[in-house]
Amino acid sequence: METMKFWRVVFTILVVSSFVSCDKEDADCNSMVWKAEMPVHTEDGRYVVSGKGETLTFVCENYSNIWFEKAVEREKEITPSYTHSNYDNPEYPTLWGEHFCATIIDNKLSVIFFKHDGFPAIATDITVSAGDVVYTFKFLQLTH
Question: What is the pLDDT of residues 26-49, one digit of tens each?
């Protein structure tokens, strides 16, 4: 009888621990897997964007509820403001930069880069998260 009780406790601990979200220090966290809807050229770890402006759309294949953490455009940080009563029904924000607009709904990120002239190339980073898992998109918009 004691053996049965012991295995029940062990089983309960295993079940509960499987539902605990991963921690940032936890090596078992699965990285986000993103796929661009259209092929995107990369250079030095950044997605290269035309100075003429364009829209890039990415879909996360292994997480369903993605949130903005922040964006950085020309070293200026942009933070989202969420207006919702609970995390199950958010009103997804739109991040506006000087040269881009980004939206995220469920697992789809769309970034619109506006046309610009006369500026040097613009580095823009957009960081998203799904709980403790974080991913940063790095873009470089060339001049027109």
Answer: 445 789 999 999 999 999 999 999
